[in-house]
Amino acid sequence: MILVNLDRRTATIARLLGLALIVWSVVSSSPAPSTHGRGLVVALLLAAAVLAFAWWTARPMDGRGATADLYVLAIAGGALIAASPRSAASAFVFVAVVAAAFRDEVPRALPVLAFGTLALAVSVLIYDATALGLLAYALGFAAALLAASNARQAVVRAEQAELLLAQTQLSQEERLRAARLEESSQLAREVHDVLAHALAGLTIQLEATRALVEQGAERDVILERVGRAHALARDGLRETREVVGALRGEAVAIPDAIRSLVDAYDGPSELHLPADAPLGGAAGLTLLRVVTEALTNVQKHAPGAAVSVSVAAGPSELVAVVTDSGTPGDTAPRPLADAGGGYGLKGMHERAQRLGGTMSAGPTADGWRVELRLPVAEASA
Asked: 60: cis peptide before it, omega within 30°?
């Protein structure tokens, strides 16, 4: 059983050394192998056992359960015990029983024990050996079978534990990869929303500045527009840093960020934001991004339209509504309509769904309406 933990070459050398010791004990005992009488029987049984042992040594784990080499080894060894009682011939039977028990469950290895014991019983009758010795050997064979079976089960459990550990590590690696992918996707969504809003506002200011330059406006008016563009670019960088900080777990003042968005809107605006609204964690960040995207879309499709941002917090639900007074039927060209990445509405829907909420957007009688609903419990979690 110890040979299981050795490498194949070392185990083979150990088996051959054991075979040599057993053969030496048989050859040096009395009656010794010869060409006549009981010695001839000993020689034939020894030759059969050696051949079976050599075959088993070459392929120790070949097949499942008992194979022909183990049966031959058990029968020849069992008969040789009584034929050469002063030798270590019983080792052949022990090897066959243990090898069979290592290959498979006890029921499939039991026939090897039975044939070896039966051969020993026949040999005891032929050579008039004692029945007590037969009983002792039978009990020894049975004990070896059970010990080998227990050792085999221990090896199987160890292999299963290693397999389970490998599967657990693989599962952890897959979860880690999925988490990294989700983190990258979330970072991309956040940066997209911030930059889309900032770049849309910046583009509006640059378009207005170009129009003023073409119309020959005063220098102070043009500088004012340039200053607004610079402020939008600065605010966009600040908001990007805040987003990265929020993803790293840093605190973000969501109410102040929403007020800054509404104040920076280039047109009439109003904000209704209760002081006790639960705007922390994922709910607050989702609300901020939806308001950002909604205002960006107004700047792109209805620049200068009046907007209203209203946030209401109930005991179990957070509701945010962004409306504008743009006219959906107006077909005038919008220079910013194609600006941005094109993932605004889809991104808002995904944000709301991840927190168990809903987001709807669509035209109204005099403009556009975006409504976000988030369950407070799920959002806080």
From this structure: no
Q: How far apart are CA 107 and CA 178, in angstroms?
A: 47
Spatial contact of 113 and 74, defined as CB atoms under 8 Å apart: yes
| Predicted confidence (pLDDT) per residue in 12-33, tens digit | 888 889 889 999 999 998 888 9
Instruction: Tell me if 101 sits within 8 A of 152, measured CB to CB.
Output: yes
Length of the chain: 381
> Per-residue pLDDT tens for 80-122?
998 988 889 999 999 999 888 888 788 888 889 999 999 999 9
Closest to 278 measured CA to CA, from 267, 286, 266: 286
Total domain count for the chain?
A: 2
**Are 360 and 229 in the same domain?**
yes
Find out whether 127 and 83 touch, Cβ atoms under 8 Å: yes
In this model, does residue 158 exceed pLDDT 90?
Answer: no
Residue ranges of alpha helices (H) inside 248-375 are 254-264, 281-301, 344-354
- Following CA atoms 290, 296, 297, 303 in sequence, which dihedral angle do they give, to the nearest 10 degrees? 140
215 occurs within a structural domain: yes
If asked whether residues 220 and 329 sit together in one domain, one would say yes
CB 361 within 8 A of CB 370: yes
Question: What pTM, to 2 d.p., does this model score?
Answer: 0.48
Which structure tokens are listed for 244? Answer: 């990265």
Best CA proximity match to 29, nearest among 21, 16, 37: 21
Domain assignment present for residue 168? The answer is: no
Residue 243, classified by CB atoms within 10 Å of its CB into exposed (0-12), middle (13-18) or buried (19+), is buried
Residues 119 and 187 reside in one and the same domain: no
Q: 54: domain range?
A: 2-129
